[in-house]
Specification:
The complex is a heterodimer. Chain A is α+β, with helices and mostly antiparallel strands. Chain A is built from 42 helices and 28 strands. In chain A, a hairpin with a 4-residue loop joins strand 14 (511-512) and strand 15 (517-520). The model of chain B has no long low-confidence stretch (mean pLDDT 84). The chains are: A alpha+beta, B alpha/beta.
């Protein structure tokens, strides 16, 4: 049933304050909880709150995070003019009124739609913010009215409509025909190739088509033979302005079969499963986990010996990957992923001066731990990595390998998306395997924002996620392993200890055999392995290790200072079955011969035919600092340079005639190199903090919060995290969860995240939101009621009811002065002086008792914040491509530069440009502060290019600092 | 995880803990698809190679069985990559098969067109095949059968040879088993494994009765048989063994050598005569086509010379049996043995057969001799290419050799002194007043000396490397090696084999290798010993001054 289309108008904002006043405390508290940025509104009046509530800056982010059903319902409501009865909305969506109810409830709780007088009213912020609701263009009437009668007559003639009459009649007639699916289908008779395809594509994606501005393009779209031209000449597309074609909403609806959303489903799609052998899955996963640990060991070990050179543009190139891949027997793309994972786990860093990648000191600690613990370090790194790790090593659009360590894959939403997929995978019952496509479908339904940008990649991302899971042993054949399930549920410790049980035992006993091999039938502790690797050559590795002694290998040990007796003693201690005689003989024989020929370093020598003269010199006290040593009665050597020795001798009254010097220094076992702490990759090392402090399963991603709400996770733990995110997804996920009725309720879930060191984890909020969020109480008992509301919100509501501002907090305990201010309309205005991480920390420090210490890290989610060495020159380059844009935005953000950005409009697909100052790139949304102080959120994936403004441009565009 | 006896490594090696209760079952289960690489005292190493997997596939095992075996016996989780690899490798075998088409004769047929297209585009395969019959089939000239198999193996798509064998001219041969002689169980297993397929290699230690496996194979084929051996002495011994153990008579067995060129229903020929050249051609290779052979036996197949490989490629329709103590080839032609002679059909670790009492237990001792200062100086001043000889033939070795020989004679042990360098052997012989056998010794004289040695009239024989192979000296129980061929592993194995034949009274065999300390003789000795050490023979190391009779 085609919906009648009315042009969009902003719904009257006038009644919103009254609605707020009429709402219960509970509803207001829930609103403030779900949209905590609203707590910033000052004064706490219903008018101000309503103003903020219906501003696109506040409403759009909430809209973006809706699940697909709620999002589509809201868009359909916009299509219906911003208000309609629930029945009508259900009819337009093609579903039952009852079925729609839970969807509407989600909208109501967020105040994205309110109900009054039997009418459902969309939040005007959304109505204004969504440019093409449901991907529909303007109505036929409004588009065609701009055409001349002559043009309309031609269109009508081509369509076979009676082509006479006044203009409104013509428009009406054409509109009626185009709105009729059958007539429309008939109209495509005789269309040139591609015309119908183009029309269908536009109907299902974007109503606006860029035609191009050139004369030849004009010719093309004025032609019967080109697809767009043919459509334009029949009103199926209309060109409202030069170079643009728009599809009338009626046409798109007819092509969609009359429904606004043919794919609307009020309930999430089911997760397809297939039975698997759980034991086989567990075995495969365990093996993968152990192999990963081994491979990381050999990979970083070889990197420690020969560091990998970075490419000019950053990252590690294919040649180095190939070399490193040999060390761990993996291909380049897997090696790239491993490196990225190591970086995420804080084991790999950059030495900036030599421009090489090296293991960090954390790797040395890593080495000393047993396998299961090493796996835990890697798994923690993976869980919290801000990047989509397997972008590195995948092929880019040119088919070239994306190098690791360039920060690719960081659209800001990677961690949140990973968490979502983790939770979904964990819902699979034991013995059941999921499937990438179905997982992608469900994830997309739950969070179109996280998973559908760009639309085609949801499946790819699910596949990559499963590949990463397989790498870690978290899943095998898309079924979670028994320990993987624990990890997916967030219990890293339990997962690691399960793995410990399955892993080969740590052995301190070696089997020595007469063929000079030595076998360790399990995992060797680090000290033993280190010693063995020195004395023998590794022949085979895996769950066990086989080494072989040879003269050469033992020589290496003797060179490193071991004596034959030491070696034998070491072997006897660790070989309960004894040392075979042939090996004993080899060692003793070599020990006997070792040192028969000596090699040393000296920088000069003294030679004399008179031993007495040399003896005299050696015993001269003032020459002792030369370190003279008699090798033979007639030869002395010194480690001091010849010139120095000569001068000292001269001073002491001896004259030495110069001979040609000789002597070289032997190079012994090269030391393992490490990157200094300064080289740690900032964007990757999130979990290092956690693992370094040894506290719980590490820091967490801000995006967890929303999910936790929905999942019933402990609210208080989330108090100082970035609560503006994903609340809706989470709510939906929670409902989905309940529907599945999978997880046992109660303590099991509440304890999942306990024990983490939240203070050590700076929240990565957008400054605008983070700076303003008031303190929320810490110290709530884990597992406490989720109904408990934060005090700040209570205070705010109390303020509202009293018609006054909330009580000011004690100095230093509240929001920093100027961190946010309010414009006349109640719109949110960000603080100019954004907080650096340190300032925020100081603020926290001032706060007595630390009420839910909330910290601002300066754009912590961005990789590669360049160290601010004075004022950096502004780059003049235009960044395109996600990685480059990401990098440039990061740089601009940390340097306070304004930018000019070109982006694709959310629904129309048209490109637009803005001048603004980037504030944050977080969860896939780049937030720009426009010259008028308004915030413009743009999905990062929609950015086409970004350029840093010159100072002159900033001034011209009203972006100067002191406004 | 189960506490199985096997550890599966990611580099495709399998470590089998021999003391584990499940080890025997595990060994039997993995033997079809893994090659025993070394079997020292505690943990044996097997390797899952492509050849081994194809072998297993040829013998009717499938990937599922292999994977199941690995999972069942493995102590720790099995590397997934290996399991996938096993399945993929095994699936490569049999995509192509050589068959006999009633209309076109020998054809290469596929059940996977892409594979056929791939190999037909290979420049190694394309010239060998004939016309394309249909999309799945291409004609192969009969003479190219072996070379096609070689090329396909190299391309990684080994062909399943289902074209069968010609029976050859029939000739009844019976094995005369009786009270005093029965085939041992492992010999019977080996013959059965071979007979079931018609071509392949049987690996048995020296002294384990390979000749009898050959005789039994002849009996099962009952056809004209060509036996290829390394030298004339070995040929005579084969003949003697065949006369004793089968229904064959003197008149039915021909010798084809430098001295005699009889072609009879059973003909024993030496590698040497077959490869000898006259005016640039090898006229005796014709022997392969001189008769309608139903079976060709290659003794010591690890020594098979290249021309015979080439000839063998042309006679792929004949049944072929390779016999050897070791598949290790110093020239790395194991793949050719696989595709031309056939896959390994039977293999048993030396220690196992020794444990069953079929070969004499041996004690190996490396005696290290400290050179005199003069000898060390002459070693130091020797040209690099002379060094080994100077070190290996040091006169200091004579003293300890003499003492050992005297001790052996005193104990009534028949003793062989084996060496590489003739002048050194002459010195030893002079010192011991013992006869020398070298390549120059006439065959008649050799046989006389062997006979005298057997009767105990000559307690000590000094032999050059001519005695390396196939001399049957049942009563030799002590071997003293004074010098060897650089680092040849198979030579050391062969020499040890001289003393491994079971002794009448169950005495222990003793093998001494005399080595000059601090010279490259010592390094080469270590390399030579590697094979035996891997087979479980632990060398005791002793000092020349203090060496005592090992027990």
């Amino acid at each position: 049933m085609p919906a009648s289309i009315t042009p969009l108008h902003g719904a009257a904002a006038g009644r919103w304050p009254a609605l707020l006043a009429a709402a219960s405390d509970e509803a207001l508290l829930e609103l403030l909880e779900l949209r905590p940025e609203l707590q910033r509104v000052s004064p706490a009046s219903y008018e101000a709150l309503a103003g903020a509530l219906v501003s696109p800056a506040s409403a759009m982010p909430s809209f973006q995070r809706l699940d697909r059903a709620a999002r589509q319902a809201l868009e359909a409501l916009c299509v219906l003019g911003g208000s309609a009865s629930p029945e009508r909305l259900a009819a337009v969506l093609g579903c039952d009124r009852d079925e729609l109810e839970p969807v509407l409830d989600r909208l109501r709780r967020l105040w994205l739609a309110v109900e009054g007088g039997g009418e459902l009213v969309a939040n005007p912020g959304v109505v204004a913010g969504v440019r093409h609701p449901a991907g529909l263009g303007r109505s036929c009437r409004s588009l065609l009215s701009a055409k001349t009668s002559k043009e309309l007559g031609e269109i009508a003639a081509r369509l076979g409509v009676a082509g006479r009459g006044p203009k409104p009649t013509l428009v009406e007639a054409i509109g009626d025909l185009l709105a009729d699916p059958d007539a429309l289908a008939a109209a495509f008779e005789g269309a040139p190739d591609g015309a119908e395809e183009l029309a269908r594509r536009m109907a299902s994606s974007s109503p606006v088509l860029q035609l191009g501005y050139s004369y030849s393009a004009y010719e093309r779209y004025d032609s019967e033979r080109s697809a767009s031209g043919w459509l334009l000449r029949r009103g199926i597309l209309v060109s409202p302005s030069w170079g643009i074609a728009e599809m009338p909403a009626e046409v798109a609806l007819a092509l969609r079969g009359g429904l606004v959303f043919p794919d609307f489903s009020s309930r999430p799609p089911p997760l397809a499963t297939s039975p698997v052998d759980q034991d086989a899955v567990d075995a495969a996963g365990t093996e993968a986990a152990l192999r990963l640990v081994r491979d990381v060991f050999s990979l970083l070990g070889s990197l420690g010996e020969v560091p990998a050179k970075l490419l000019k543009g950053g990252g590690i190139g294919v040649r180095e990957l190939r070399r490193l891949g040999k060390a761990c027997d993996r291909d380049e793309s897997q090696t790239a992923l491993l490196l990225e994972l190591c970086a995420a786990a804080g084991l790999l860093g950059i030495e900036p001066y030599e421009e090489v990648a090296l293991p960090t000191p954390a790797f040395d600690r890593f080495l000393e731990q047993p396998s299961w613990h090493r796996w835990r370090v890697l798994a923690a790194g993976w869980l919290e990595a801000p990047l989509e790790l397997s972008i590195a090593g995948s092929s880019d659009s040119d088919g070239k390998l994306v190098p690791p360590l360039v920060g690719a894959g960081g659209d800001g939403s990677a961690a949140a998306r990973r968490l979502l997929l983790c939770r979904l995978l964990a819902t699979l019952p034991a013995g059941q395997a999921g499937e990438a496509a179905s997982l992608a479908n469900l994830a997309s339904w739950l969070s179109p924002m996280l998973c559908e940008r760009p639309a085609s990649s949801a499946l790819l991302r699910a596949q990559r996620f499963l590949a990463e899971c397989a790498l870690l042993g978290v899943s095998a054949s898309a079924a979670p392993t028994v320990f993987g399930r624990l990890l997916l549920g967030g219990d890293l410790d339990a997962a690691a200890s399960l793995l410990e049980k399955a892993a080969p035992p740590v052995v301190r006993e070696l089997v020595l055999q007469a063929d000079l091999t030595v076998i360790a039938p399990g995992e060797l502790p680090h000290d033993l392995r280190f010693e063995l690797a020195l004395l023998a050559d590794l022949e085979s590795s895996g769950a066990a290790a086989v080494y072989r002694f040879s003269e050469r290998s033992l020589q290496r040990g003797l060179d490193a200072g071991r004596s034959a007796a030491h070696v034998l003693g070491f072997l006897e201690r660790h070989a309960p079955r004894g040392v075979p005689q042939s090996l004993r003989y080899l060692i003793e024989d070599l020990g006997r011969r070792h040192g028969r020929l000596r090699l040393g370093g000296a920088s000069c020598y003294l030679r004399s035919e008179e031993p007495s003269l040399l003896a005299e010199i050696v015993s001269t006290r003032r020459l002792s600092r030369l370190g003279l040593r008699a090798l033979a009665p007639t030869v002395l050597v010194s480690t001091a340079p010849a010139e120095k020795v000569e001068a000292a001798l001269r001073d002491a009254g001896y004259l030495a005639a110069a001979e040609e010097p000789d002597g070289t220094l032997s190079v012994r076992r090269p030391a393992q190199r490490r990157a200094g702490a300064r080289g740690a990759l900032p964007g990757w090392s999130a979990p290092t903090r956690a693992t370094a402090t040894g506290q719980g399963p590490g820091g967490r991603q801000a995006g967890d919060v929303g999910l936790d709400i929905g999942l019933g996770f402990d609210r208080d733990l989330d108090a100082d995290l970035d609560a503006d995110l994903d609340a809706e997804i989470a709510a939906e996920l929670g409902e989905y969860w309940d529907e599945l009725d999978e997880l046992p309720p109660g303590d099991g879930r509440h304890n999942l995240w306990s024990g983490r060191d939240l203070d050590a984890t700076p929240a990565r909020g957008t400054p605008a939101v983070a700076a303003a969020a008031g303190g929320t109480p810490a110290g709530g008992t884990p597992g406490g009621s989720t109904k408990e509301r934060p005090d700040a919100a209570r205070a705010f509501v109390a303020g509202l009811r009293a018609g006054s501002s909330p009580p000011r907090r004690p100095p230093g305990a509240g929001r920093p002065p100027g961190s946010g201010r309010q414009s006349g309309s109640g719109r949110l205005v960000p603080a100019r002086g954004r907080l650096g991480g340190r300032e925020a920390a100081e603020v926290d420090g001032d706060r007595p008792g630390g009420t839910g210490a909330r910290r601002v890290e300066r754009i912590g989610a961005l990789p590669w914040p360049r160290p601010g060495l004075g004022r950096r020159p502004r780059p003049g380059t235009i960044a395109d491509g996600p990685a480059a844009i990401h990098g440039l935005l990061a740089e601009a953000t940390s340097n306070d530069w304004g930018v000019r950005a070109c982006y694709r409009d959310d629904l129309s697909g048209a490109t637009r440009e803005l001048y603004g100052r980037p504030l944050a790139l977080h969860h896939g949304i780049a937030t720009f502060e426009l010259p008028d102080g308004e915030l413009e959120p743009v999905p990062a994936t929609h950015l086409v290019w970004v350029r840093v403004l010159t100072e002159a441009e900033e001034e011209a565009n009203g972006l100067v600092e002191d406004w | 995880m189960s506490g199985g006896p096997l550890i599966v490594q990611s580099d495709r090696t399998l470590l089998l803990e021999t003391d584990h209760a499940g080890a025997p079952a595990c060994r039997a289960a993995i033997a079809p698809f893994a090659e025993l690489e070394r079997s020292p005292e505690h943990i044996h190493t097997y390797r899952v190679t492509e050849l081994a997997l194809w072998n297993a596939r040829a013998a009717g095992h499938d990937a599922e069985q292999v994977v199941d075996t690995l999972l069942r016996f493995s102590r720790y989780p099995v590397p997934q990559a290996l399991l996938v690899d096993v399945a993929e490798t095994m699936a490569r075998y049999g995509r192509l098969s050589l068959e006999v088409d009633p209309a076109h004769g020998l054809v290469l047929r596929t059940n996977d067109r892409a594979v056929l297209e791939e190999v037909l585009r290979s420049k190694h395969v394309a010239p060998l095949v004939g016309a394309r019959i249909d999309v799945d089939t291409v004609v192969v000239p009969g003479a190219a059968r072996g070379r096609v198999k070689q090329a396909l193996l190299k391309a990684g798509w080994p062909a399943d040879d289902r074209a069968g064998y010609v029976d050859g001219a029939s000739h009844p041969i019976l094995l005369e088993e009786g009270e005093d002689f029965r085939l041992r169980s492992y010999q019977r297993d080996a013959v059965e494994a071979f007979a079931a397929t018609g071509s392949g290699v049987v690996v048995l230690p020296c002294g384990a009765g390979k000749t009898l496996v050959g005789a039994a194979a002849m009996a099962s084929a009952s056809a004209h048989t060509l036996v290829l051996v390394t030298n004339i002495v070995a040929a005579r011994q084969w003949k003697a063994e065949l006369l004793a153990r089968t229904s064959l008579t003197e008149a039915e067995i021909g010798e084809y050598s430098g001295e005699r060129k009889d072609v009879r229903p059973v003909t024993i020929a030496t590698y040497q005569i077959l490869t000898s050249k006259r005016r640039g051609v090898q006229p005796h290779l014709e022997l392969f086509s001189a008769e309608d052979w139903g079976l060709i036996i290659y003794d010591e197949v690890h020594l098979l010379p290249a021309p015979i490989f080439r000839m063998t490629a042309d006679i792929q329709s004949r049944r072929r049996l390779g016999l050897t103590a070791t598949l290790v080839r110093e020239d790395g032609l194991e793949g050719d043995v696989f595709s031309l002679i056939g896959p390994k059909r039977y293999d048993a670790p030396w220690r196992d057969i020794e444990a069953q009492g079929w070969i004499a237990p041996a004690i190996c001792t490396e005696v290290r001799v400290t050179l005199t200062d003069e000898e060390r100086m002459s070693y130091a001043f020797a040209e690099p290419d002379e060094r080994y000889r100077v070190g290996a033939t040091a006169l200091s070795k004579l003293g300890v050799t003499k003492r050992l020989c005297e001790e052996a004679v005193r104990r009534g042990e028949p003793t062989l002194v084996i060496g590489q360098y003739l002048d050194q052997l002459e010195e030893v012989a002079t010192m011991l007043a013992a006869p020398t056998i070298t390549g120059k010794t006439p065959v008649r004289e050799r046989e006389r000396l062997y006979a005298a040695f057997r009767r105990g009239e000559e307690p000590v024989l000094v032999v050059s490397k001519v005695a390396n192979f196939s001399v049957d000296l049942p009563e030799a129980s002590v071997a003293i090696q004074v010098s060897g061929t650089f680092g040849s592993r198979q030579e050391e194995a062969q020499r040890l084999g001289r003393v491994l034949r079971p002794k009448a009274d169950g005495r222990q065999a003793r093998f001494f290798t005399v080595v000059s300390r601090d010279t490259n003789d010592q390094e080469f000795a270590a390399r030579r010993q590697r094979f035996l050490a891997e087979q479980g023979y632990a060398y005791q190391i002793a000092d020349a001054e203090t060496v005592s009779w090992p027990s």
